[in-house]
Amino acid sequence: MLGAFGLALYRGVTLPVLRIVMVLGVLHLSLSQVRHADLLGMLAPIFLARPLAEQFTALAGDRTGLTLRPSAWLPATAVLLLIGVTGLASLRHDVSPPARITPANAIHSTEIAKAGPILNDYDFGGYLDFVGVAPFIDGRGELYGEAYMLRHNRALSLENLPDFLRLLDEYHIGATLLTPSTPAVALLDRLPDWKRIYSDDVAVVHARR
Questions:
Q1: Does residue 82 register a pLDDT over 80?
Q2: Domain identity same for 202 and 146
Q3: What distance in Å separates the CA atoms of residue 196 and residue 191, rounded to the nearest whole number?
Q4: Within a domain: residue 154?
Q5: What is the dihedral of CA 184, 188, 194, 196, to 10 degrees?
Q6: Is the pTM of this model over 0.70?
């Protein structure tokens, strides 16, 4: 990005105002949430292509073939390299998410999916999605909204203990899947309506009696 900005400043590249807004918008999204980096990669070239082609005449459509034909081996080499790297990567079987966010043993050792709605730790949401269990929350923070996420965090940390108890009843929670260090775990151990049915160094499962 710094190189692109430097080139723009050096060559005096200009864009229409609307395209500037769109490019800066997707740039902001990609820097604020890593999942939006794909948007920058897909949309920024679309917004930049025409102005750059007009300002860098060597890249204009009517001269592209003549200009790039002598160097056609470069994209061909890049494609072959990409295919090779992708093929090698697909042969790997040791790629997996970190164990601390993968409560596989807790899921496979209990019938948590049959207990009813699950109140889960934020970091476990992605794995629950992966195994087909509906999470209470996952990494798509922009979909849940700030108020929902703050309530979830304050409830599990027992910053608002009465609201934690209300949350369990309001959403008809049948089981919880939390990290051992979550303050709510110790409270659930003491609540008469709940029992611990599984625990390891990754996750603790409580079920409603």
A1: yes
A2: yes
A3: 10
A4: yes
A5: 100
A6: no
